[in-house]
Amino acid sequence: MLFLRGRTGDDPVTCLWACDAPGLTRPLLLIHGLADTDVPPVNTLRLSAALKVAGRPHELLVLPGIGHQPIGSTVTRQLLERQVDVLRRHLGVEAPRSAF
Description:
The protein has 100 residues and is an alpha+beta fold.
């Protein structure tokens, strides 16, 4: 997992992770709550743009109304299912068959 560090007011263009976007080779799932007051959502949007320009595989999941910590919120189940789906697809693991 890649965790973006930043504070409100930081210039994301000068942050190291934005400069390193072309060197990132593994598929990424970027997740950001739009109500996050700890790390501005624009940081993740700019990283996504830098990854797109660099031709790097990634998915962007923005969570309207969710803050910095989405676990324990109304979207917890959907968020965890999305993470499992991304891991299965990129690792080539099939989903278990339902017993029903």
